[in-house]
Design goal:
Elements lengths: L4 E4 L5 H10 L1 E4 L6 H8 L5 E5 L7 H4 L7 E5 L8 H6 L3 E3 L6 H17 L1 H9 L18 E5 L3 H12 L3 E5 L10 E2 L3 H7 L2 E4 L13 H7 L4 E4 L8 H10 L4 E4 L10 H4 L5 E2 L8 H19 L17
Parallel strand pairs: 1-2, 1-3, 3-4, 4-5, 6-7, 6-9, 7-8, 9-10, 10-11, 11-12
Helix pairs in contact: 1-12, 5-7, 8-9
């Protein structure tokens, strides 16, 4: 059996387990009767971790249990569940699964936007309830004449912008830096972008740097005809402030694919008929999830062979500086 030992703390896609088991010694921690004892037994030998965003945070304390750890392969483009600074200090590379999900998430973002503006899920429920024979579904808002502000014009943000332009939306953005290779207007402050647009779409990474950046002041600036779309992380929004803004009419509506404490969604959001809610399905197709899973596998197998990882996160580049 190969001496490259990988720990998978929680279940991941079957293809990940199957391919890694065929090429390395994979330990499935969740199958152990006594997980604490199993961790203590395995930790000194583990060279790699295969993790998903739903697992416990991979923080400094968790990483410290593995003295020979070399690489953490995370499933998903977002990796805010991994303490990358702690990993770097230990000389551990962290990888994620970017690019392969760009188009899928961008499709979901535009679908969520359309569903929110035109109240498509509500119209579906209206028909199914038998209400149509009693009268027509109410008129809705429109995309016509609207402008889209994107918070985080990265790879997915650019894919969203391309789609938005095809729908006739003017596009502007906010980020840490102006990007000279894009034709969109740049706003150096989030508040400035919120004031300038009437659709605010967030596709920025999670983590301490973006924690609750969408707050009551930003929502106030978006205004009573404004629509908020979140396909980033629930942590980027002050969720109570968003609920209050929706209840008071500070903004018109919201379309949300992510929440602060998933899978638990505040009942106040569920009870609002004008809000569209999705269960974090941005990249959730067979095609894209398979591609993401394969990238987890390929990162680990490349490392096993002594090759550079395919997609290290920026904070832990290869080689580590």
């Amino acid at each position: 059996m190969p001496d490259f030992e990988i720990l998978m703390p929680a279940p991941m896609m079957p293809m990940i387990s199957e391919q890694l088991s065929a090429r390395a010694r994979l330990h499935k921690l969740w199958e152990a009767d006594d997980k604490v004892a199993e961790m203590a037994r395995l930790a000194p030998r583990i060279k790699a971790l295969a993790v998903g965003g739903g697992h416990q945070p991979i923080d400094a304390g968790f990483l410290a249990q593995f003295p020979t750890l070399e690489i953490v392969a995370s499933f998903g483009v977002g990796y805010d569940h991994v303490d990358v600074n702690a990993a770097r200090q230990r000389g551990v590379i962290v990888t994620h699964t970017p690019n392969v999900l760009n188009e899928e998430v961008a499709d979901t973002a535009l679908g969520l936007l359309l569903a929110t503006v035109r109240q498509l899920p509500q119209a579906d429920r209206f028909l199914r309830s038998g209400a149509w024979p009693k009268g027509n579904f109410p008129l809705t808002a429109t995309l016509r004449g609207r402008s889209l502000g994107i918070v985080g014009l990265g790879r997915i943000g650019k894919a969203i912008a391309t789609r938005a332009e095809a729908f006739g939306l003017s596009v502007s953005y906010h980020g840490r830096n102006v990007q000279k290779d894009v034709p969109y207007s740049y706003y150096p402050t989030l508040l400035g972008l919120a004031k300038a647009c009437d659709i605010l779409l967030v596709i920025t990474p999670g983590g301490a740097g973006t924690q609750q950046m969408i707050n009551a002041q930003v929502l106030e600036a978006l205004g009573p005809t404004g629509i908020f779309i979140n396909v980033a992380r629930g942590s980027v929004v002050d969720e109570p402030a968003l609920i209050a803004a929706l209840q008071k009419g500070t903004i018109l509506s919201a379309g949300l694919d992510v929440f602060a404490h998933e899978p638990n969604v505040p009942q106040a959001l569920i009870d609002m008929p004008h809000v569209v809610l999705l269960p974090h399905v941005g990249s959730a197709t067979h095609h894209t999830r398979d591609a993401m899973a394969q990238l987890v596998i390929d990162n680990l197998l490349a490392w096993q062979k002594g090759q550079p990882p395919l997609t290290p996160v920026p904070e832990t580049p290869f080689p580590l500086l």
